[in-house]
Amino acid sequence: MIKINLATSKVSSMPLGGSGLGVEFVDESDTRKNAMKRILIIMLGPLALFLYENQNIPGKMNELQSKSQVLAELQAYNAKQADSVAEIKKFKEDEALIESRISALEKIAKDRQREIRVLDLLQNVIPEKAWLSRLEINPDRVNIQGMAMSDFEVSTFLEALTKSVFLMDVNLVSSNEVTEDGVVLKRFEISCLLERPDE
User: Fold this and answer.
1) Rounded mean pLDDT of 32-57?
2) pTM of the model as a whole
């Protein structure tokens, strides 16, 4: 079959001889309608996408602006808090330094009190006929040197030191006779451990 488009609005079909070949006349308006339908179908996809974008993109843009503003606020807040964190860190470092200094001062104060107690003890227990010529107080040991009129005073002094709660391991290091200005005296040296204060 052969199709021939004519400019007429009528369609006619007629066989040509006995061969079965025919000529069909097609209306031009139907062809235009079919073409328009196809064009409309093809344009529906982009048109739908265009409408979807026009409806949703402004909302998405507003949401993006809102989230950008929140992000900017959070970044500003974080920057501000970073300064606060740095200040807190410096404060904690200063606090640790002050606490270590206070601890050192408390230890010094305890050691001084301990030394004062030892001096007070020596003053209270030393016999009348004995005196000290040298006193050395170290962090853990006390060395005492002195003179006495006799061995009795030395032993009395040694016994009193042994009974003290501030001193431990009291030992007579040396005791010998010396003559000064025609008087025979006993020179002695005592060593003992100094009780450590509670840390």
Assistant:
1) 83
2) 0.46
